[in-house]
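Reopening this ticket.

The earlier resolution said the output was attached, but the attachment link was broken on my side. Pasting everything inline this time so it's all in one place.
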Amino acid sequence: MSIRTILTGIICLTVAGAAHARRIEDWSYQRLLETSDVVVIVTLEKVKAWDKPLPLPLFADVLEAKCTTFKVEGILKRKLSSDDLELVHCHWSFI
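Inline output:
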């Protein structure tokens, strides 16, 4: 494979990636604090599979839901009802 082919491939991938990118705003810590509902300092406790059905049944075969539990170490904004915080998130299961 020639260097010209490799460079062409890299340029095509770079341009294609940039063409579909969206601009992400830079937010100051002050703006994040003002617009957030809860601000906490946490440590990771565990990650487990989420056993409830996904809210997006169309993607159920390619998405895998996880439930991550955090231990709340400090609260910067708003009180929580417990010392643990659970975050349900999905990721592509075929990767």
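Reporter confirms the inline version is readable. DSSP finds two helices and three strands in the chain. Residues 39 and 77 are 5 Å apart (CA to CA).
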